[in-house]
Amino acid sequence: MKSKIQRILKKKNKSKLVCLTAYSKNFSEILDKYCDIVLVGDSLANVLYGMKNTHKVTLDMMIKHTVSVKSGLKKSLCVIDMPLNSYNNIRLAKKNAKKAMRKTKCDAVKIESNNKNFSIIKELVKSNIPVMGHIGYTPQFKKKFKVAGSSEIEEKKLIIEAKKIEEAGAFSIVLECIKKRVAQRITKILKIPTIGIGSSSCCDGQILVTDDMIGLSGFKPKFVKQYMKLNKIIEKGIQKYRREVISKRFPKNINSY
Ligand code: KIV
């Protein structure tokens, strides 16, 4: 197995995996110093494109952003999110995942399992394409936000789904907005690392949408901790620029030819 993936697997039960999203080189260059995994998430639909969900994201959009992200990475594992309708069946999934890997030179693809995509994951892994699974709240397939794993039936279903993803050969699995108790059980049962978002500190690693945690997206659900308010810092810079342009303090001779 590829060495970057091996490094991720070896961290299970040793140290937490640090993961974030990026959509461009400007961010991925910074993230590369601090993250094990950089995910080019289809969350770019809401965050960058102002779409109300991720359903209209295309593979070409994902490929363009991943090429940019990859150009800023030296060490972190780069994962591309396969958008809705790009992996409806084994043939399509193989064709599109191969295209994504070839065009972006990324290290792996992420697939929302929707409790049925196990054979797709298996076939991709057989074709030498590393796969990250994704269960719990999966925005491609769920109409409304809901915390997953609240009932005993749901808990059992999630555990079975996670096991099937591991059996299919995925190297890791995102647990999105899953009850702490259930995330803890899944993390204990699986040999592959679990990466939580809104699923407690029990997971083997954590991921957040970078734009949310730096205060750029304006999206502040309970599971996001805002580490800074970058929007305020940007606003200050823009205000100063405006003042200086209007008052002719910018550009100075030093900025001119
Ligand atoms: O699209 C995305 O950014 C994701 C993460 C939230 C896990 O899937």
Explain what the structure shows.
The chain folds into 2 domains: 3-226, TIM Barrel; 229-257, no CATH class. 40% of the residues lie in helices and 15% in strands. The protein has 10 helices and 8 strands. Strands 1-2-3-4-5-6-7-8 form an 8-stranded parallel β-barrel, surrounded by 6 helices. Strand 5 (131-136), helix 7 (152-168) and strand 6 (172-176) form a beta-alpha-beta unit. The longest helix has 17 residues, at 152-168. The termini are far apart.
Q: Please give the count of helices.
A: 10
What percent of residues adopt helix (DSSP H or I)?
Answer: 40-55%
SSE succession: HEHEHHEHEHEHEHEEHH
Rg from alpha-carbon coordinates: 20 Å
Alpha-beta classification: alpha/beta
> What is the overall silhouette?
globular
Read across the widest sheet, the strand sequence of neighbours is: 1-2-3-4-5-6-7-8
- Total number of distinct structural domains: 2
How much of the sequence lies in strands comes to 5-15%
Q: Which ligands accompany this protein? A: 3-methyl-2-oxobutanoic acid
Mean pLDDT: 97
What would you give as the CATH superfamily of the largest domain? Phosphoenolpyruvate-binding domains
Major beta-sheet overview: 8 strands, parallel, barrel
Give the N-to-C terminal Cα separation: 54 Å
CATH topology group of the largest domain: TIM Barrel
